[in-house]
Request: fold
Amino acid sequence: MGDQDDGGAEALAQRLEDFQDARLHGDVQGGRRLVGESGSGKSTVGRCAVRLDEPTAGTVHINGTDVSHLSRRALRPLRKDFHLVFQDPSSSLDPRMTVGQIIAEPVRLHRYARGTAVRERVEQLLGQVGLRPEHADRHPHELSGGQRQRISIARALSCDPDLVVADEPTSALDVSVQASVLNLLADLQRDRGFGCLFITHDLAAVEYLADRIAVMYLGQIVEQAPTAELFASPKHPYTQALLSAAPVPDPVVQRSRERIVLHGDLPSPLDPPTRRAAATPAGGATGSVFDGCRFHTRCPLVTDRCRTEVPALREIPGGRQVSCHLVTDDGTAPDAAA
Reply:
């Protein structure tokens, strides 16, 4: 899937081309986390999932319904079932509206409540995210960053959605309030039972919140697995490098760890290293095709096969998936730090 963007729609579509064949393993009821470095395509996936961006390929199914290319009219009654919590609450909340108006807007649009029940619903949601009823009469600029993000969460939950996509919901917040927002999301998900796709580059938050993790690199899922298994035994060389860069609280353990330093070219997310123009019989070019693994320019274990053959995302034991030629069918993987 890809999104429409001036001058880059085709490149972005190609960048996420193979994501259409990858499924976030199982449902997201227990919480699925999508991780990867900047430019890997995480946010594009999230925006396409809730149809803020139009997928150019592939499909998005929510509750068994293909929402990929529904018209606005057909999509509207389904909008209440999925919502997005944006990265920066300062830019995603209308500064001209009060907090009460912001939370009430989807309640009224989707006719979840009417009349005095709307105000009651707003106060109920404020209480659920740890705010007081009087916050409803304030404007976003009168609140702290953590309080604004709580408002964003309340708005996302206003119509009891089945799916919430949280796109880096703590990255714009002070470290001192990040933990409280993460705890709030975890508690709300447990108590209300909605599915959650949590997009982040913060591996510590992922380990704490997720029961399954999908790792992305340049628009592709390279590995996904249950959280405990992925942290204990990452298979893909990129996942190994990503985890080796994450700090641990124990300084003794931190000093003894061997960090995997990735060398080689840092690819452009709009022009992956394996991309080339597809030739036509007449000698012209149309579209793009990919040869080889997109990670091969930085992989410490690269082989000739990695440069010429695209690795498939395949099942290995333990409910895992990995996209690497070097991982055997029984799940044996080489150590990228060796």
